[in-house]
Design a protein that fits this description.
136 residues; alpha+beta; Nuclear Transport Factor 2, Chain: A; 5 strands; 29% strand; globular
């Protein structure tokens, strides 16, 4: 019985560490998933605008279509390609900000995965980002 107690303590510690590692891994997976959707969106704007439109959040898609006809026609006029290879991702619960070179995108997690809520965003001193594509 005395040998069993330390063994159970070690198993409990390892289980807790494994659970914590799993949580940390989820954060990295969410970053990777948000980055993948943002990258796919920016690549698709020029090569397959219909695919890029499918990656928009529902309200953002509606806004794009309300302002410029079909999304596949309007989106390439509104979003410029990302220049540069540097990327950074910040996930905050169900929201994310992705910086791809000169382009900044905002995403939200829906039942179908990450979707772009705003694109073509540039920072404004002491003000919110100015985005060429966004939901209302």
């Amino acid at each position: 019985m005395t040998v069993l107690r330390p063994l159970l303590a070690v198993v409990a510690v390892l289980t807790a560490c494994g659970a914590l590692a799993g949580c940390a891994g989820q954060g990295n997976a969410e970053n990777d998933n948000a980055l993948a959707v943002a990258g796919q969106f920016t690549r698709s704007v020029r090569t397959d605008p219909a695919r890029a439109c499918a990656l928009l959040a529902p309200q953002t898609l509606k806004t794009v279509e309300d302002e410029g006809g079909t999304c596949a026609t309007a989106l390439p006029r509104e979003v410029q390609p990302a220049i540069g290879g540097t990327s950074a991702v910040q996930v905050y619960g169900k929201d994310a900000i992705v910086h791809l070179g000169t382009s900044t995108l905002f995403l939200a997690r829906f039942g179908l995965g990450w979707r772009v809520t705003a694109a073509g965003c540039t920072p404004q001193p002491d003000r919110p980002y100015d985005c060429t594509v966004r939901g209302s």
